[in-house]
Amino acid sequence: MSSVVVSVLLWHAIAVLLLSNLASAEGIEATNGGTKHRGEVIYVHNGAVATDDGRCSRIGKDVLREGGHAVDAAVASALCLGVVSPASSGLGGGAFMLLRLNNGVAKAFDMRETAPALSCKVPF
Q1: Which residues, if any, are the signal sequence (predicted)?
Q2: Cα–Cα distances in angstroms (integers) from residue 80 to residues 27, 34, 56, 73, 84, in the given order
């Protein structure tokens, strides 16, 4: 089995574990979508987590509350989104991130998806 396949399977397994933990902790099914979970912004001391799904925002919040930093929370939230909304996130997806470093400097990251400069229509 190639290392790429193993990596993809590992990331999906981690995301499933995160969601099963959330479902058991909060009494909701991991597949329970719908608008009541959408658009939530969850604030924690000195931070905020916002995703398209409130369950994923709560996972990011929990990472921050347990001592993780913003990038840890972003990765955990992104893994969750890959499970609850696979059609709109995952490999090839884009993102934006605002990050305030310990020294007070704010950084903005534009991680929008773009096609490779030498791409052509043939492979697609």
Answers
A1: 1-25
A2: 17, 15, 5, 11, 6
| Coil vs helix vs strand at 50 | strand
d(CA 41, CA 57): 7
**Cα(87)–Cα(110) distance, integer angstroms:** 21
23-43 confidence digits (pLDDT tens) = 444 433 333 344 454 555 556
CA distance to 17, 40, 54, 59, 112, per residue, from 94 (Å) = 23, 20, 19, 20, 4
Residue 65 in this model has a pLDDT that exceeds 70: yes
Binding positions: 112
Q: CB count, 10 Å around CB of 28?
A: 14
For the chain, the domains span: 3-91
- Convert the pLDDT of each residue in 8-21 to its tens digit: 666 666 665 555 55
